[in-house]
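This protein record is not my work; I was only asked to verify it. The record follows directly below this note.
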Amino acid sequence: MPYLAILLIGLGTLLVLSVPIFLSLLLPTIVAFNASDLGLPALSIAQRAVQGVNIAPLLAIPLFIFAADVISRGEIGNRLVAVADALVGHIPGGLAIATALTMAVFGAISGIGVAAVVSVGPIVYPALIKQGYSKPFSIGLILTGSTLAMLIPPSVAVILYCLQTGQSIAKVFLSAFGAGIVFLILLILYSLFYALRHRIGASRRFSLSETTRAFRRAGWSLMLPVIILGGIYTGYFTVTEAAAVSAVYAIFVEVLIYRRLKLRDLFDVTGTSAGTIAMLLILIAAGSVMTWFMTVQQVPQMIANAIGQGSAESLLLIVNGIFMLAGMFIDPNSAIIVLAPLIYPAAMAAGIDPIHLGAILTLNLAIGMVSPPFGINLFVGIVTFKSYFAEVVRGCLPFLAIALVALVIVTYLPAAVMWMPRLSGVM
C-alpha cells in the first residue's frame, strides 16, 4: 500500500537524519494521512493527538518522574547503598551484589533507570574501583543494573504498555517484577563469579550493630517502596494516587528529614522534570497519531495475519527480535508506544498471555537501554563516569549476555514471571 510505504520510508529516513523522534513519527503520518482515502478531516490528527494524552492513568508517569528527580538530588540513594553493603558486603563480591540490590530497590522507588545511574552510580563507582573491580566491569554493572528500574514496579515502561494495550497495570507490574527478579539473580551470580575469579575479597566484615544502624538511618528511604507497592496491592491507592504519594513523600523526606534539599531547590527539580515530562507527552501524542492511523488502515490485522500463523514460541522469537532491534536505535518509550499496539493483536491471536507479554517486552526494552549503538544508558555512562564509548560498550557486553539468558528464561519459562500475579490473586 502506498501510504504504508510513505509512512515507513519517511520514519526511517527521519530517524537516520536524527530528526527528533516525535517529528519522525508525526510528519510521515500526516503525509500518509493526506495520501490515503480515509475521507476524514485534517482536524482528526489533532484530535487523536489530544486523545492520546487525555488518559487519566497517564498522570502517574509525570508524578513518578518528578519523584525520581527529587530522589536523584537527595540522600535516599546514599542510605540505600549503605543498607545493601551492610547486608552483603561481608561476602565475596559483596559490594558488586550490593550495587545490584541497590539498583533494584531504587527502581522500586523511581521506576526510571537513568535516575539510578546519575544518583547511585557516582556513589558506588569509586568504591568498586577501590575494591579492585575493573573500570569496565564497574560501569557495566551500574548501567545494566539500573535497567532493573524498568522491571521493578512502579515501572514507567509497564504503565505505557498497559495504556497502549488496555491491560491491568497491577497485573503487569507483578509479571515484570518476576522478570526483574530473574535478571537480578543472574546479576548477583555473575558478580559472585567475577569476584571469585579475580580474587576480590569482601568489602567489610559483618557487624550486626552496623547493619542495624544502616537500617535505622535508611528507615524513611525503605518505607517509600513499601508505601507505593503496599498501597497499590492492598487496593488503598490507585497507581496514579501512589505516584502522587511518592512525590509528596520524597519531598517530605529529602527536605524535612534528611535536609539534603531546600525548598528553593525544588524549583530546579521541577524545571528538570517539566522538560522530561513535556518531551514524553509530545512523544506519546505523536505515537498515538501514528498507531491510530495504522489501526484505521488495519495494519495490526495485517501483521497478525502475516506472523500470527505459526506457534506462540516462534512468534515470541519474532517479537523479541523486533523489540531488541528497536531498542538498539530508539528509546524504550518510543519503542513501546509505536510497536506494542502493532504486535499485540498478533500475540493475542497466537494465544500469548498479555500479562506475560508485558514482562517480555519490558525486559527487551531494558536490554535496549545498554545495547549499542544508541542505548541511552551508554551515553549517560559516558558523561557520568567520564569514560568513552568503546570502554562503556566493552563493560556492558558481558552483562548483555546475562540479560539475553534472562530473556530466554522469561520468554520460554512463563512460570518464572507468572507465579507472582497468580500467588497474589490478581490473575
Q: What stands out?
A: DSSP finds 21 helices and no strands in the chain. The chain has a mean pLDDT of 83.
